[in-house]
Amino acid sequence: MEDTEDITMEATPEQVLYAKVLEKGMYVGLLILFITYAIYMFGILDPYLPIPQLSRLWTQNVHEYLTEAGIQDGWAWVGMLRYGDFVNFIGIAMLAGVTIMCYIAIIPTLLRNNDKVYAALAALEALVLIAAASGLVAGGH
User: Fold this and answer.
1) pTM of the full predicted structure?
2) What tens digit of pLDDT does each residue of 86-135 get?
3) Are 81 and 87 in contact (CB under 8 A)?
4) Fewer CB within 10 Å, N side or C side of the chain?
């Protein structure tokens, strides 16, 4: 007689919750991208860089581009959301941050299931991602 363990291919509750948060976050981020793209394309907000200047700057590396355009790196884009070519960063930031929201969302489920190690790992993962995005580690984004 063989000792076989029943292996189920069903997702755990935290995996389902992670997927639901990821799906909703992706749809919200995508919707924001469509809306902000329309704001830019229809000229509802004036762009920071005029199109002729933008096409000239595209040939440069990132450092030269930012310096010549007078744009600071990191989270300085938040202060430039009044411009049509920066408002689309909201959707990009949303999509980039949805993983953090997923990890935070599953922590209560993991704790309810007495998976303290996994809950701690999820919390640490969220903290690492937040620290990396914040600019505290190596200058940020």
Assistant:
1) 0.79
2) 999 999 999 999 999 999 999 999 999 999 999 999 999 999 999 988 88
3) yes
4) N
